[in-house]
């Protein structure tokens, strides 16, 4: 089981709050530029959180997957693919 740093959990909670704010903006008919700006901020925050999760848990993930018969190289490539695919 992976351990997630409290700062990462807080970052995700903040992004969740931002998303609720964006929904409220949309329901209020706010300008699309403002909505897209906020969406971009949330996306950046989530991208950073993903990077931190992969970086902080890479060793554990590689170890766990090695037990499952997946090589260290394959495991690292999977982590890279997750980060690249999200962009």
From TrEMBL:
BP terms from Gene Ontology: negative regulation of DNA-templated transcription
Pfam families: Trns_repr_metal
InterPro entries assigned to the protein according to its UniProt record, in alphabetical order: Metal_Tscrpt_repr, Metal_Tscrpt_repr_sf
GO molecular function, one term: DNA binding
Protein name: Metal-sensitive transcriptional repressor
Organism annotation: Trichococcus palustris
